[in-house]
Design goal:
alpha/beta
Length: about 325
C-alpha cells in the first residue's frame, strides 16, 4: 500500500471488492481504504448483496480453451482497444500541430539552416592577417587559395621548411642577433639517423654558400625585422630577413633555401613579396620608396636575383583589390 500510494505523479485510484470467486461471506474493506475515505471525506459503498453474486453467474467456456488462461483473450482485447485509442489520439494531436504555425516555422528554420550550410561550402572569408609570402598565391591562383580556406586540411611537415628555419636562425647568430641555431640543430630527428645526418649536411652547405657571398662581409642595419603592413582590410605580416645600408639608400634581402624562379613569370610573382617588404619598410622608417632596393639570395644555388621591376604601392593595391573585392 505504501509503494502504491507514493509512486503516482498525478492521481491515484483506490478500489476494493466485497466478493471474490469462492467466498461464502463478504470481505470487509481494507483498513487502508477506510483511512483514505476518512481523510478525504468519501463514503464507502454499502454492501447490497448478501450472497456472493459471482456464484450466480453462469460460467461459459469457449472451446478450445485459451492455453494462457481464461482472462488472456479479455486482456488482449482490452489492450488492443487501448492501443487503438492512443493511436487515434496521437493522430488528432499531429493534425492539430500541422494546422498551426509553429511546425511550419520550425521547418522553415531547418531548411534555412541547411541552405546556409550549403552556401558556406561555396564561400570563404579571407583571413585578416596574411603572411607576405602568401600574397603571390592569392594573385596567381585565387581559386586554389579559396578552396583551401573552405576546407582547411592539416599540412604535412616539410623538411625544406625546417631547413629554412634552421638556416635563418644560423644567419641571425652570424650577424650577432639573438639565435637558437645550435639548439635547433640539436633537435634533428634522433629516430632517423640518416635523415638527421643529411639535414646537417644541407645546413653546412648552406652555411658554406653564404660565407662565400657578398652578404657575409656586410653588416646589416636590421635583422629579422617584422612589420605589419595593412592594405585595405587585410594586414600582411612582413618578416624582413636583413636590411643593408647602400651608397644610394638601403637594400632588403630575403634569404631563400628553395629553388630560384623557373621563368620570368615565376620571378614576377615571387617579387610581390619583396614589393610588400619594400612598402612596409618605407612606411615603417619614412625612407622614400625609391631609395630602397630589394633582392633575393637563393642560398642553395648561391644565386642572387635583384628584380628591376618591383610594383609600387598603387600597383599592389590594384592587385589586391582585384581579388579581395
Amino acid at each position: 500500500m505504501y509503494v502504491a500510494v507514493t509512486r503516482p505523479k498525478q492521481s491515484l485510484l483506490l478500489t476494493g471488492s466485497y466478493w471474490k470467486p469462492g467466498n461464502k461471506n463478504a470481505r470487509t474493506p481494507s483498513q487502508f481504504l477506510e483511512s483514505a475515505c476518512e481523510k478525504f471525506g468519501v463514503q464507502l459503498v454499502e454492501l447490497a448483496a448478501e450472497v456472493n453474486p459471482l456464484e450466480e453467474i453462469e460460467l461459459i467456456e469457449s472451446w478450445p480453451l485459451d492455453p494462457l488462461g481464461e482472462r488472456h483473450r479479455a486482456d488482449v482485447e482490452r489492450v488492443a482497444a487501448q492501443t487503438l485509442s492512443q493511436l487515434e489520439s496521437l493522430e488528432r494531436k499531429i493534425d492539430a500541430i500541422l494546422e498551426g504555425d509553429q511546425i511550419q516555422q520550425d521547418i522553415s528554420l531547418l531548411l534555412a539552416e541547411k541552405d546556409a550550410a550549403i552556401a558556406a561550402t561555396d564561400t570563404a572569408h579571407l583571413p585578416v592577417r596574411i603572411p607576405a609570402s602568401s600574397f603571390k598565391d592569392y594573385i596567381a591562383d585565387f581559386e586554389s587559395v579559396v578552396s583551401r580556406l573552405r576546407r582547411p586540411m592539416p599540412q604535412p611537415p616539410y623538411k625544406q621548411t625546417r631547413t629554412g628555419t634552421l638556416f635563418h636562425s644560423w644567419v641571425e647568430g652570424f650577424f650577432g642577433a639573438a639565435s637558437h641555431a645550435g639548439q635547433l640543430l640539436g633537435q634533428a630527428d634522433s629516430d632517423d639517423a640518416d635523415a638527421a645526418a643529411m639535414e646537417l649536411e644541407n645546413i653546412k652547405q648552406l652555411q658554406s654558400n653564404f660565407a662565400s657571398s657578398r652578404f657575409a662581409t656586410l653588416k646589416p642595419v636590421d635583422v629579422e625585422r617584422e612589420i605589419q603592413l595593412t592594405i585595405g582590410q587585410n594586414t600582411f605580416i612582413c618578416k624582413l630577413d636583413a636590411v643593408f645600408k647602400t651608397a644610394g639608400g638601403f637594400e632588403i634581402v630575403d634569404w631563400k633555401t628553395g629553388k630560384a624562379p623557373k621563368n620570368a613569370e615565376d620571378q614576377k610573382l615571387k617579387t610581390l613579396q619583396l614589393a610588400l617588404y619594400r612598402l612596409a619598410y618605407a612606411r615603417f622608417t619614412g625612407i622614400p620608396l625609391e631609395k630602397i632596393e630589394v633582392s633575393f639570395y637563393f642560398v642553395t644555388e648561391n644565386k642572387e636575383i635583384k628584380p628591376t621591376d618591383v610594383p609600387n604601392e598603387a600597383q599592389l593595391l590594384e592587385l589586391w583589390g582585384a581579388v579581395a573585392n
